[in-house]
Amino acid sequence: MKHIFLLLTAMFFVSCASQKKISESVTRSLTETYFEGWVSGVRGGGAGINFHVVFQTPLSNQTKLEKVVFKGKEAVFQTQDGLHYTAYIITKSGGKNMPDQEPVNEPLPESTKAVLYFKQNGKTKVHTIKNVKEKEMLAYPSMNKPR
After folding, report:
1. Residue 129 β-bridge partners
2. pTM score of the predicted model
3. Per-residue pLDDT averaged across 109-136, rounded?
């Protein structure tokens, strides 16, 4: 009985370790991660963070970049060319909220750590980035009122 318990425990730790890391080819292809805050140029327009991930080569068909957890917020990625991925994190909602959403106005932690979630061969894998670079904030201009 003791041997079975030790065997199951060892299998658990081995399976957890293998599921947590993405393949080396994906991490080698990862060239840049950065974020930039933004604020709306109109009162009540909101604020947020654009989180960017850039790859040197496109991800394989078996690998998909799904989401990021950054500063206590989670957002899904979008891409247009397969090399540049962006996740849009809303940190301060503006105007009217959607009926199924709660207002987002709490302060964010100061961490520069991000956790990327990939789907690789049908299994969820994670990659942690400890020091994400911050680029200059985007301050969108206000609109002129229509006449």
Report:
1. 114
2. 0.72
3. 90
